[in-house]
Structures are given as structure tokens and as C-alpha cells.
């Protein structure tokens, strides 16, 4: 049996052989010691105990402003706007973050649509160009951005770019087993060090429990919960999809990109070799992390006409 201190000793060999070697010691030192899944009640009672190192409180930072947006059903949605330092950054783009976690599953799409329209209608207040807007997100945020690009197309609202990283595009949190997925990466990395099957199952039990699934599915269009099932893939905004090689969600994210290609849209798909689902959050200063950030900057600059 492998020593407990041996790097990667709990990572299946077929996954270990593909991982970026910079990641393996980090798994041994940090991720392998993380607490197991806990209930939402416990998380809310002690958020500081389980907060990720990247979950920084930005509410007191300079040029950060909180707003409230009214969603379609009258619910109040908190939105945070980040205005960059003009001495270092120059003109836009300005990030707007939507807090979509504290509500019933599926409501995030409705709230995100309200937030997008609020941004456009508040262009003067926010000092932005309403005709130069992009959407994007990581993981579930990428899923939301896919739904938004369809909603924007349907409403005649032009977007410059949809920038989605490691996105789920199916209703995988309702699966009973990894083999329920038609995509091979879902089974191949089911026992990976980051976002394994038991984690996805935990998320499903928390936000999409069996006893509420019928109710939730009746509330929203099917393709909101699985954007790869959207009825029309024509006329969508340019899209940059980034996936991680060692991620269960890899293949379904790339499959969505291929549907965009079939619809005649401008699409870039990049797979980061050896990377895991949370590659952008890991405190590792390596070439892959720098490349990830530089790719986003370059794509946004080009989309918004700021490329030199």
C-alpha cells in the first residue's frame, strides 16, 4: 500500500498519469485534507470554517458597489459591480457579479436575465457602453452564461462574447450513476481529486433533490437546466469555451461548443491539458495558470475592440 505521504497516492493511476505534475503535491497537502461533505445547515452556521481561500470579501474594496435588482417574480437579487482602477486599467470592461446561490434551483437563470437587462438599462449610472457587453462564468456560472446567450439572441440583445469555463451543459446532477452520462469523461474522471462523482451527487441532493425534481422541472424550460438541449443554436454570440482535461464535465462542455459550430457561430474551444475543474482557483503560480488568465484577457480585449 502506498504511503499516506506519497504524492498522488489516492489518485487513480489512469488519472494521475494525465494530471499536471504541479497539481499533485497540492492535492496531497491541501485537497486530500479537506472536510467531507457537510449539510447546508452546517455550512450556513459556520461559513468561515468551510470558506475557500479564494472566497475573498470584496465588499470594502475600492470602486466596488453593491446594488439590488428586481427579478421577474419580484424577488430582490444582490449584484456587485467592480469598477477598475482607471490609472491602471483604462476603459472597461467592468465585471458585474450575480449572487445566485440562495434560491431554488433554476431561479438563477431568471435572476441572471434580470441582472443583464438591469446592466443595459443602467448604462449611464454604471458608465458603460450598453452595446459592448459580454457574459461569462465558471462551472455553474458558465452554464448560466450559455442560457443567457440564447435568451439575449431571442430578445435581440447583442452580446460581444460568452466566456464559459468548465461548464456543465446537461442535467448531470440528476444522474443516478456516472454511466448515465453519454460522455466518456464523466466516467473516466468519476474518482478524480477534484469534482468527483460523489461531489456532483452531493450538489444534486442539495439543490435538486429527488422529491422536488418534478416541481422544479415544471417551473422552467427544459433547456435552462440542460442548455445543450436548447432548440435553436443559430445566431448566437461569439463564444470561448475552456475545459479541463481531467474534469468530469469536459466532454459535455466541448459538445455544447460543437453544437455552436453546427449552428454557424464563431466558437473557440480550448482544453487545458492536465488541468482539473478548479484550475483557475488553485494558488499555483505556473505557466498554465498564467495562460488561463492571459487567454481570458486576450479574448475580452478582442471581443470589445480593445486589442492592440
Automatic annotation (TrEMBL):
Pfam families: Abhydrolase_3. Gene3D superfamilies: alpha/beta hydrolase. Residues 105-279 form the Alpha/beta hydrolase fold-3 domain. Coiled coil: none annotated. It comes from the Eukaryota. Keywords: Hydrolase. One of its GO terms (molecular function) is hydrolase activity. PANTHER family: AB HYDROLASE SUPERFAMILY PROTEIN C4A8.06C, ALPHA_BETA HYDROLASE FOLD-3 DOMAIN-CONTAINING PROTEIN-RELATED. This is Alpha/Beta hydrolase protein. It comes from Neurospora hispaniola.
Amino acid at each position: 500500500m502506498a504511503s499516506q505521504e506519497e504524492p498522488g497516492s489516492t489518485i487513480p493511476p489512469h488519472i494521475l498519469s494525465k494530471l499536471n505534475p504541479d497539481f499533485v503535491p497540492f492535492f496531497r497537502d491541501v485537497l486530500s485534507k479537506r472536510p467531507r461533505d457537510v449539510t447546508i445547515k452546517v455550512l450556513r452556521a459556520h461559513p468561515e470554517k468551510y470558506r475557500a481561500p479564494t472566497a475573498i470579501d470584496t465588499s470594502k474594496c475600492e470602486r466596488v458597489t453593491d446594488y439590488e435588482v428586481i427579478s421577474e417574480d419580484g424577488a430582490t437579487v444582490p449584484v456587485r459591480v467592480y469598477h477598475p482602477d482607471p490609472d491602471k486599467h483604462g476603459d472597461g470592461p467592468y465585471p458585474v457579479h450575480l449572487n445566485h446561490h440562495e434560491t431554488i434551483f433554476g431561479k438563477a437563470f431568471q435572476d441572471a436575465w434580470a441582472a443583464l437587462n438591469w446592466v443595459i438599462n443602467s448604462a449611464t449610472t454604471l458608465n458603460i457602453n450598453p452595446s459592448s457587453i459580454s457574459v461569462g462564468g465558471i462551472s455553474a456560472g458558465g452554464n448560466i452564461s450559455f442560457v443567457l446567450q440564447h435568451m439575449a439572441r431571442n430578445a435581440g440583445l447583442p452580446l460581444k462574447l460568452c466566456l464559459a469555463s468548465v461548464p456543465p451543459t446537461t442535467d448531470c446532477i440528476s444522474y443516478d450513476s456516472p454511466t448515465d452520462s453519454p460522455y466518456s469523461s464523466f466516467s473516466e474522471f468519476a474518482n478524480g481529486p477534484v469534482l468527483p462523482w460523489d461531489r456532483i451527487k452531493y450538489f444534486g441532493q442539495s439543490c435538486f433533490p429527488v422529491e422536488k425534481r418534478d416541481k422544479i422541472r415544471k417551473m422552467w424550460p427544459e433547456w435552462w437546466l440542460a442548455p445543450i438541449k436548447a432548440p435553436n443554436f443559430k445566431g448566437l454570440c461569439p463564444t470561448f469555451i475552456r475545459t479541463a482535461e481531467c474534469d468530469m464535465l469536459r466532454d459535455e462542455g466541448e459538445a455544447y461548443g460543437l453544437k455552436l459550430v453546427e449552428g454557424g457561430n464563431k466558437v473557440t474551444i480550448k482544453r487545458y491539458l492536465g488541468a482539473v475543474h478548479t484550475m483557475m482557483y488553485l494558488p499555483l503560480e505556473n505557466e498554465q495558470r498564467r495562460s488561463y488568465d492571459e487567454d481570458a484577457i486576450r479574448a475580452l480585449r478582442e471581443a470589445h475592440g480593445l486589442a492592440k
